[in-house]
Amino acid sequence: MQVRAAAGRDVEACVDLVEARRRRYAEFEPRFWKKSASSAALSRKWFAHLITQTDVVAFVAEEDGRVIGFIIGTNFPPPPVIDLQGGKNAVIDDFAVVSDDRWSDVGPMLFDACKDRLKELGYTQIVVIGADKDNAKTAFLKTTQLSLASTWWTAGL
Question: Which whole number is the average pLDDT over 38-67?
Answer without folding.
Answer: 95
